[in-house]
Amino acid sequence: MNEDQKKLDAHFTKLGWPYWKPYEILARLVEEVGELARIINHTFGPKPKKATEEAQELELEVGDIYFALICFANSNNINLSDALDKCIHKGETRDKDRF
Ligand SMILES: [Mg+2]
Fold first, then answer.
1. Which domains does the chain have, with CATH numbers?
2. Which of 7, 40, 43, 64 is the most buried (most CB within 10 A)?
3. CA 32 / ligand 1 centre spacing (Å)
4. What's the gap in Å between 97 CA and the centre of ligand 1?
5. DSSP per residue over 17-62, as a string?
6. What per-residue confidence (pLDDT) applies to 94?
7. Which residues contact 79 (CB under 8 A, 6 or more apart)?
């Protein structure tokens, strides 16, 4: 686990929360991505915000996505730092001439 993963795991331990099942976390992750998409559409796209809707912050929605992603990684024994390193390596090798 990286430091953020350890921080969230300690939070779950403190509150006595279990991690959800993988498909439950995936559903939550997709839900949060949808919330981010809504903000993007309101901010940069053609969809106006309803007058009754509360303001949403981009940073908070990205945080929600990160939270859900860390939950998924922690419950599946994935080190996110290692996963990122592998993706970077893939970009520098397999995909280096792709873009
Ligand atoms: Mg959210």
1. 3-92 (1.10.287.1080)
2. 64
3. 5
4. 36
5. PPPPPHHHHHHHHHHHHHHHHHHHHHHHSS-PPPTTSPP--HHHHH
6. 92
7. 1, 2, 5, 73
* CA–CA gap between residue 70 and residue 56 (Å, rounded): 22
Residue 84 has pLDDT above 80, yes or no: yes
Give 28 Cα–ligand 1 centroid separation in angstroms.
Answer: 9
Opening angle at CA 98, ends 97 and 99, nearest 5 = 100
Q: Quote the pTM value.
A: 0.87
Give the residue, 56 or 76, on which the prediction is more confident.
76
Residues 99 and 83: their CA atoms lie apart, in Å, by: 21
How many Å lie between the centroid of ligand 1 and the Cα of residue 35? 6
Cα dihedral 73, 79, 84, 86 sign = negative
Contact present, 87 and 81 (Cβ < 8 Å): no
Per-residue pLDDT of 73-82, as tens digits, reads 999 999 999 9
